[in-house]
């Protein structure tokens, strides 16, 4: 019914994502095997370096954050560890807010966040980063799918405008055969099933992106400010991406929002863009990112994008999530600096981006070569505090 993204057992990720590309990926990572005090990223983009294990990298590399990145992170960790076996790497998918909190408190070396650091967090990062600053790199670009559980509906996707979606989630539209939905889906027989809106119950960058889209594109139907916390009380909800998907899956008539990589067998909405309806895809997501400007407070190290949620560009999908990889420009330990630098170099490389874009892993949109150059300049600046 909706677009299907295959779920992958993390134990098999290494075998799945490396098929046909292992040698190139290992070569890319192997080039980062330099001394911890002077970590190099010259081979991160795949320059044909040696595939020997990175024996100079060792220690613990802990991260936490956005659950949207969980599948991609599983692939990245598996392939990175193939060439850096002495690095114990982990990622706790606690959600964007929890990841930023752990990073700023010094509990982890890096974070994943579906929203940019808030001004007060940017300030806090100066102390956490030993006098340096936070770097924010848009390394995971993925559509957010509006997912639904509506068996028996004969349609690849149900069409909806942002206004219709907003009226569903604010409680104005309560039945699947409401005239507003029917008008956008001529020829589709919609049941009179009650709609059950489902939201995240934890602070979530996915929620912030979703409410930002509704606020910008719904012609005033969504009256709440964009926020990582759901603004309406008494709703059906789920914890993290997996909890929301489980809640929607378990209730006929339910509708929710989640990183598209975890839509599974649920139906997905095609969004109205201009005069057409566009289903999610990595290509459609990439169109919006490339057409969007940088945020006013962006810097060379904080590559924050101001997404254009109201675009009418043909084939663009404006409900997009940019999940940032967050780290420090300075660490107090040479091993930490080397490990973060090598891992972020790998994620940004063409090979690393290909791992995440594999439909069997996350189906994300690879970053452009132009953006990669900017990212690598920020990564190259990671150093050890004096």
Textual characterization of the structure:
The chain is of the alpha/beta class and 386 residues long. Helices cover 33% and strands 19% of the residues. The protein contains 13 helices and 13 strands. It has helices spanning 13-18, 22-30, 70-83, 96-104, 119-128, 162-169, 179-183, 205-217, 240-249, 282-291, 334-348, 350-357, 369-380, and strands at residues 59-65, 87-92, 110-113, 134-148, 158-160, 196-200, 236-238, 254-259, 267-273, 276-278, 320-328, 330-331, 383-384. Strands 1, 2, 3, 4, 5, 6, 7, 8, 9, 10 and 11 form an eleven-stranded mixed β-sheet that branches. Strand 6, helix 8 and strand 7 form a beta-alpha-beta unit. Helix 3 packs across helix 12, helix 6 packs across helix 8 (205-217) and helix 11 runs antiparallel to helix 13. It is elongated and about 65 Å long.
